Amino acid sequence: MDIVLLSDVYAEGYIRGAGAYKLATELRSAGYSVQVIDFASRLTEQEVNKLFNKFLTQETKLLGVSNTFMSNNGNKIFEQDWMLNLINEYKQRFNFKVAIGGNRGGPATYSKLARNVFDILVSGFADKAILAVAEGNAKGKLVNNQLIVDSNVDYEYTDFHNSKTIFTEQDCIFPGEALPIEIARGCKFRCSYCFYPGNGKGDTYKHLKNKSVLRDELIYNYETFGTQVYDIMDDLLNDSPEKCEYIHEVFTNLPFKVSFGSYARSDLLISNMHTLPLLEESGAVGLQFGIETLFKKSGSAIGKGMAKEKTIEGLHYIKENSNISLGSGFIFGLPYEPLESIRSTIEWLDSKDCPLDNKEVYALSIPSLNSHFEHSKLMIDPYRWGYKDLEPTNKDRMIWDNGHINWYQAKELADECLNRFRNHNHFNAHQISRVYNMGYDVGTITNTPAAVFRNKFESIKPNSDSVLSKKKQYLEKQTHNHLL
């Protein structure tokens, strides 16, 4: 095999990581033979050896690691402690290059954890850069014997309008499997805490797939695999009414019905309520918002300034006038928000009056500049918003105090909420497709609290028996003789 890519979405249930399969599509189109190995953070050492012995040879040019969802532990790349050493053994045996990319790490992380393993670090969307990496002539900056390739500078990908992610028999897709899909790239907003590579891109209507391209992709997946459920990977589904109309036109004119979950902005939906039926008729069964705070001054500071009363009233309207499962994240420790406002938000989230099905809360994270390739405004200059650094020697993240609350207090409040919300919290929009892939229907998933679901049905944790059973079926396909 010319190129082997390792991927996983290490979370409850199972779904493909979009990045590895998009790169595989680009490489295959250029004539390379490519094998994606999924479940990479859940494989045993025996299973990895079996797969590596099949797909890694003297002809192998590159082994790539798609790191965005590979592990939940920020101090690791893979869940298995032995994986990096094993990769290095095969690298020395067959003399191929090892590259890593994704949105979960940067030079400091990769150098510290695996300086001797990774030859190439790739930042940004690597659709075009991966071809140069495969050819061995990628441009970049050499730091500590690692080549850092910045896709945004040297390999900007400008053909997304006409691009697809083409899954093949080589990828061992299960019949009816829910799949990830991209409709557009980037987000026209640049929230202060966000370091996603596509933010601040202006009107993302300019970055949509052509309607015929998207339609062909959806029909191909249905006719080839029976796929009707999707996790839409766009940074923002509803960035404009025009995009909602575009989605409605494509999805409602298919010869089959599609269901999907996606990120969306509640303030844009509330300000353009005519887009609500468009999204539901298109197949939206779950929307995950990023409201983050109900405190007006904080919201305005981060780029989300809708008033609390209008937000809550709008959420009630959406809930009462649709069957979409609604979720949102909230961040404790944003600029200017006093503790009493955070406490008020917690009480509302934990009340019967809250129309959100899924509530997720986090302590504000301000990673170090060296920990990620992309940087948020808060990472670049947290002092502008009044943050103080309580532990300047911490090289991974800022342990902050903003004058109202510090990182430790915010973390304690987030942990408190996890326990308070546990028994009535539903799955978020992106979990729907992952749980669906374990054999449960969308209606059951969206109408059952997650804790009740876990107790009533087979466990869906990353290494539960049901997930490992799915992995076993996948490996049986992977090791079949016709996959060469």
Explained architecture:
A seven-stranded mixed sheet has the order 2-1-3-4-5-7-6, sandwiched between helices. The chain has a six-stranded parallel sheet with strand order 8-9-10-11-12-13. The protein contains 19 helices and 15 strands. With 484 residues, the chain is α/β, with parallel strands linked by helices. Helix 3 (83-94) links the parallel strand 3 and strand 4 (97-101). The mean pLDDT is 91. The chain has helices at residues 18-29, 45-55, 83-94, 107-114, 129-135, 151-154, 211-225, 241-251, 266-271, 275-282, 296-302, 308-320, 339-349, 377-380, 407-421, 429-436, 442-446, 450-456, 465-478; strands spanning 3-6, 34-37, 62-66, 97-101, 120-123, 141-143, 146-150, 179-181, 229-232, 259-263, 284-292, 325-332, 358-363, 388-389, 400-401. Helices cover 37% and strands 14% of the residues.
> C-alpha Rg, in Å?
22 Å
Helical/strand content category? alpha/beta
Number of strands: 15
What form results from the Cα inertia axes?
A: globular
Number of helical segments with 4 or more residues: 19
Strand content: 5-15%
Uncertain residue segments: none
Main beta-sheet strand count, sense and barrel state = 7 strands, mixed
Kindly report the spatial arrangement of strands forming the biggest sheet: 2-1-3-4-5-7-6
Approximately how much helix is present in the residues? 25-40%
Distance between the termini: 7 Å
Mean pLDDT: 91
